Amino acid sequence: MRDDSRALKLCNDVVRFGIARGAFEAPRPILAHVEQMVTGGDCKTVYVKGYETDTYLVTPQSGSFSGIVIKIVPDANVRLAKSVAQEATVLRQVYICGETSLCVWPTPLAFYQYEDAHVSVLLKIAGSAITCVCVDTRTAAAVAQAICEIQRCIGSVPYGRQMLSILQASSTYYASKIRQWLQKYTSVTIGEESLRFFDALEARRIAVPTIVSDRSPANFIAMNNGDIGCFDFGLMLVGVPQEDWSWFIDDPRLKTTLSRNQLIDIFGVECGTGIPTTQELAYHLAAMFVCIKQYCLMHETGRHEMAAHYMRRASVSADALPFQDAKKLVHIISNPPR
To answer: Nearest-CA neighbor of 116 among 87, 68, 144, 74?
Structure first.
C-alpha cells in the first residue's frame, strides 16, 4: 500500500469522467462529497495492490466522509473484467433489496467504461481491517452471523438466484477442482478414485447449494461502532456454507487467541444447521478443499510460509475425518515426487 500522486491524478480523471457522463447513481449528499474531493483537491489516494486486482482508496484530508474505493480493470483481462462487473451487479441488487442488518455492505456508486477499462466505484467502509485486530469471541460470532447473512442475501437477489438455478449437478466438482489445481501448480497427480471421500460434500452442495465468496479476514472491516463491514465480492461460486467458514478460520492472517476448534464451534452455533457431527464432517471436508486450493496458489506465488500454514490446516482436518484417503492425500501433497 502506498501514496501515489500519479494514482491521485488517475482517480480524479476517472471520477470526473464518470460524473460528467452521469454514471454515478449515488445519493446526492454522497455525490456532493465525491465531487468536493476530486474538484477541490481535498483528498489523498492510496494504491492497494491485491493478489490480482489493483484498487485505489480515495479519502478526504478532513471531515467525516469515509471516502471511495475505485477498481479499474482493463478490458483485456476478460476474467477480472467479468469479476468486477459481477460484483457491481450483486452489490447494486443487495443495495436495492435493502434487507441486510447483520453486516454493512459497500454502497455501489457507479460502474462504467473508461477508455479501455471497466471502472467500479464504491463507498468506503470506515473502520479497521479484521486482520488488524485480535478477534475475540464476540467478534467471531459477529463475523459468523455476517457470513450467514451474506450467503442468504446473495442467494436471494436475481443474480444469485440465477447462479443457483444453473448449478451443474456434478458429482465430482470438488474432486475435479483439486485434481486441476494439483496438476497446474504442483507435480502431484492423484486419481479420482482416491478423492471419493469428498462424495459427502458433493451431495451437500447439490442438495443445499450456497453461494460462497471468499470470506477471508482481509475482506471484513471492524467498524468503529462495533458493526461488521464486508467487501470484495469478485469471487462467487456455488458451494457449501462451510467453505466460507474455512476461508475465515484457516487464513494465516487471522489474529485471535481462540483455538481453531473454538472458532469452528462458534460458527456452528451462530450459523450451523443439522446435528453437530454432520456439521463437523462438512467443515473438515470443506477446509481440506479450501486449504489445498490456497496451498497451491501460495506455493505457485512463492508465499511459502502461507502455503505451509494451509497444508498444516489441511492435515489437521484430514486427521479429524474418518477417511484414510484424506490422510494419504495430504501426505502425497506434502511429499511430492521429485
So the answer is: 74
**3-state secondary structure (DSSP) of residue 103:** coil
233 near 220, Cβ under 8 Å?
no
Indicate the domain borders of the chain: 2-126, 129-334
Q: What is the CATH number of domain 2-126?
A: 3.30.200.20
Strands (E), 41-107: 43-49, 54-60, 68-74
Q: How confident is the model at residue 210 (pLDDT cuts 50, 70, 90)?
A: very high
Report yes or no: 91 and 106 within 8 Å, Cβ to Cβ: yes
* Band of pLDDT at residue 28, cut at 50, 70 and 90: confident
- pTM, rounded to two decimals: 0.92
Which CATH code is given to the segment(s) 129-334? 3.90.1200.10
165: cell is: 438455478
Q: What is the DSSP letter of 59?
A: E
For residue 4, give the DSSP letter.
Answer: -
What's the chain's average pLDDT?
89
On whether the CB atoms of residues 142 and 270 are closer than 8 A, the answer is: no
